Amino acid sequence: MSDARSEKKRDKLPGLNTANILLVESEEQFQKSLADALVEETAVTVYVRLAKSLPLPKENEESRPRIDLVVFIINLTSELSFQSAEASLKYLDPGYLLGKVCFMVTNARNVSVPTKRLDAVRKLAAALHCPLLFAEDQTSDGVTNATKRLLSILKVSAGLVPMATALYLSSLTSCTVPPRHRPAKLRLAPVFSGGVSLNF
Amino acid sequence: MAAQLNLSGPPDSGLSSLTDQSMSSRTSNRSLRVAEKERRKNEAEDPSVLALQYFYNVEAGTPVNGNDEVERNLVLVEQVAYRNGLSPEAISIMLEFAMSLRMGHSLCPRVLKCLIPVTVVPQEAVVRGVSWLGVGKIPVSTQVLFIKWVLTVFDMIDAKDQLRAIYGFIFSFVSEENLCPFICHLLYLLTSKQIVRVFRVRKLLELQSKLGRQPFLLNLLSLYKVFCPELVTLSIPSRSKSVFKNHNMPWKSALFAVQKRNGSQVASSISLASASKDGTNRRKRKHHHLEIPVLSAVVNKQPQTETSRRLVPLVQIQSVAELLENMDHIELPAQMGSLLGSSLALQYLDCVQDESALLRLNFWIGYALHEELLFCGDGASQNSEESLQFLNKLLSTQHFLQEGFSSSDAFLYKFLNVWDGSLLRPQILGLLSNIPVIPSSQIGRLLFEPLMQLFFTSSVFFKCGLIECLSNMLLKWLIWHSVYALEDDLDISLNSHTSINMTLSGFKDSVMGLVDFVGRLASIGLQLEGCHSLLLSFILDFYTMVCDTFLKYGLPLVVMPPPGVFYPALFATDPVSVDRLAFIMYRYKVNLTSAKSQEKLTEQAFHISRQTFREFNNYTVYMVNCLWNSKMFQPGMGVQLREELLLKSNVPQYWTSFDLVHHPAFMSYAIDFHQKCWPGKKDIDLDSIKHSKPWSWYLEYLFSQGYDGLALFVQSNIRAGQGNGQQGDSLST
Fold first, then answer.
1. Do B410 and A133 touch (CB under 8 A)?
2. Domains of chain B: which residue ranges?
3. Domains and CATH numbers, chain A
4. Would the CB atoms of A115 and B458 count as touching at under 8 Å?
5. What is the DSSP letter of B661?
6. What number is the ipTM of this complex?
């Protein structure tokens, strides 16, 4: 990670009552509507920065403010989207992983999403101890809700919530890898014959 | 069976029904021109009756090639079929003609293709057709065509009892490789619980090992598994996306056209049935899937069987009395989803002994939920209104039956993992609160992990909603316990329709798990949201139930709230929260005292750990010290601060800050009281309230404002008549 200097956070100071969020999405679809909704927030001044991938260009490095939260938006129906996020992660300063990164996934309920890809995203988020948020990008309600959730994390990671730190929140929200799908031979436990075992 | 086919009936009965129709319409239409038109139409139809007669009488072995008569008659029949559809009798005649191969097999597909029913398809004709399959002379492609036809018109077949009776015969065609997918679909539609047998499961598994994991085999097996989970141990992948998509249904468009023209009653149910059963037109199906079908009879006319056990379709039942009369012979509708819309049907479901109806409904619900909310197509947003209606219906059904469906539970466990926390929130939380008791070993993985991630990243309103949902869940668990707990062995059978059995200790573990989980969410939630008073109110709702588990619900379990809930409630700025906390503490005391006295009476009563008593005593003593004695910071209490730090804060008389006079929640009352008590005094000295006389007036004044919880707490914890300065008593461990 010798060239991974593009995203450092230590050398810049936070502004008063402001929060900076960086949305990284290779497809550049969802980030626009999210950004529009994010800047509507009135209690805190929210600056939104958009990027297609990391590393960020060198030229504006000096004027760029300190980033409080990096959000990787992954469209699950596209393998490229996931790969791009994975590649971008390498350019992130490790310090960010202490609660200042989160993944936002769209289209998780789509029929064309292979189970393996969702599992891979989960594993990635779990390995990095980051929260994994699911979002409905098709509806305006979904966008509003996704915005609210990002804001609630952003406020904590920007230090605007008393008694809470980014690391503390991420210890509560970090993704866990859900149970594996049962192997084909396994007989289901009789206790659950009427319960969870009915998977069609 | 084949003999029952009424071959001796007048071949022109097809005409008679048609003339009946035109007669009736003629009476309504007085217009001469219309009558004229009718007459011309009738004349035009006459030759079609003759044509039918020809096909009924034609000798076996008549040559086809160069036979103009056949050609002419067939064209006539086709014309009628594509325009108006064929009457049941005509269908019988033409099907029999085609399947018997009286004129070879070249005409067969053509005849089959024009079999478009106008009203219903007689069951006998279908049974006879199936029996011809066994003769073995029909080419495979024609056999496939025939089965496809049966599948298309399945919902129009007037009865299914004889078809079910030859289930075994139909099953035997499964081994024919080309027929197998279609036979599987047909079997899928005919399967009932009694039919699922080990040898059939074995045969299907054998086929599966030969043909691979084919979706049609898996679907049939999954249905078998629903009926008899003990026979099918194979695990079915959850992502079997499409059920039986192998029919391109040549009849469908013609059928729609005919029915549209006739405007018949059957049309609506058929369109739904075919829309949800075949997967050729995925988009179309999307829009119909969650629509709850109208309750319609499978049997449009009474089956002509001589058996005394006449089946009564559920749709014909109008009252509870009728339902009770016919309880033992009710024909379930073909589409189980229609049950959701009818309260009588639900009554039936609730009291019927046979499980198969519930299993079928469960299966349907599970399938619909998965398909619509977990594996949706691209236009996911379009059907949200439909999903909303459906979930509301499902909720009201669950409310009516007072139990959940296992398939909706299984769906929820998966859905929580991909939920954004806002989509259909009230409905999802409603379904979630209906989940039956989960063993404590599974509860964390299934519920707590996904919920925790959602809880801490969502708004305060989601937090409130989730706490309320978990309160309802706990309430239902506790009610189940108090209803189903058997007195002797303390075993609980939680749900009459599922085999979940649980020991009392297992149940207690689950309840403990849930209460602890809510305690954790509540403590941290309050911290993150700055002790939001709405959230606090929902949390106190939850503990109002938890504190009474022993006396109100008979569960020998007492769990105290964590400090993260107790102290924010005690120091809350609104008097209501403090009052509710006082009430909760009072109920804890009543519960603990009664548990303790029972422990003394009977040996085997449950044991409350010393830890619980210690926690309770600490809280009570602290509360009394704080509110009553003005001694906030005593050594050994829950909240401790060093003396010098407190002095540094420059708060005068910091120890009185949270007594009943200075507590931020009650200070306005104190000032109000002060003004009423000493109207002349200009400078307010709140400390003067603490003298013995005004203190008791002040308490009376406070209690008269409706703070009953506080009154009960004071009455039970502070010895009467001793006024200010008394230590609260505590329970000994």
1. no
2. 281-300+313-404+413-424, 436-560, 571-733
3. 18-192 (3.40.50.300)
4. no
5. T
6. 0.84
